[in-house]
UniProtKB/TrEMBL annotation:
Keyword annotations: Methyltransferase, Transferase
Any single GO CC term annotated in Swiss-Prot or TrEMBL for this entry: cytosol
Gene Ontology MF terms: RNA binding; RNA methyltransferase activity
Annotated NCBIfam families: PRK10864.1
Biological process per Gene Ontology, one example term: RNA processing
Species assigned in the record: Rheinheimera riviphila
One Pfam assignment: SpoU_sub_bind
Taxon lineage: Bacteria, Pseudomonadati, Pseudomonadota, Gammaproteobacteria, Chromatiales
Protein name: tRNA/rRNA methyltransferase
Amino acid sequence: MSADAKPRRPHGKPSTTTQTPRPPRKSAEENSGRGADALQKPWAKAGYKAAVKTSPFQGKKPAADPKDPMHKPAAKVSAATLKQHRLEETKVQGENACRVCFTKRPQSVVKMYLEASMASKFADVMKYLAANKHAYHIVDSSELEKVAGSQHHGGVVLIVKRKPDLSLAAYLAANKHLKQDCLLALDGVGNPHNLGAIVRSCAHFGIKGVIMTQPYLLQSGAAARTAEGGVEFVEGLSCEHLPLALQLCKQAGYSLVTTSSHAGVSLYQSQLGSKVVVVFGEEMDGVSTQVANSTDVALQIPGSGQVESLNVSVAASLILGEWYRQQQR
């Protein structure tokens, strides 16, 4: 053992070295205030105070960067724009009408409401709307009734963009090459269920257009539902004055036909032309005198006479069916 080395203390013997006892730990209460700050912050002993800066953005949301597309403010839509959108949209309700509308022009569908029971039948429509960032809502029958404005919604309602109206002049110019053509002209007929039934018959017999001063009525919810999808195949041909429109048709080579419950040629003894416009009036008063005077022939649908006349949509169906039959010969 070297001279500088200290001898080891044998095991079991207490040390005689005197140690300075540590001061007791201060409690949390005693460490509060400046004393605790002095222990944690050495600069506090010298009397310095830490400068704490407050961020100008504290408590505020950072302003959106106009160049960042993720932070652009939502565009404000004016009341006039919303009103215009509503005028450009209409409702299609009922399973068949909605299915045909989506098949013919899916891009026009804006939104869909449907009951849960119809979800499987319209799964493809829901998938299309989701892919194109359009909404669909599964609702109960009472909510769907509010959307449709009717109890007869058939479990599904589409909000769609209206088909644009086509002027009669534009139709005649585009179809002047046709050798066979039949159009309907409606004088004062406005009941949506009658309109829908007429359009359904038109689609069945291949009639391409209905001349009206208010063709948008053909696309009302009730008319479209009654038409069972027929509105997608029949154009509403707009005109400002029906007598002038009929003269325009006459100049284009169409014969003009109207109906009468009291006089006229029997429908089944007549020879309907290959190009014809059939004019129907409102059930109570019929066609106006001015319109009646411009037609070439009046047709009578024979019957028992036990009732005065047929519903306008039924009369239209019979005459269109006869015209179609004659053209097939």
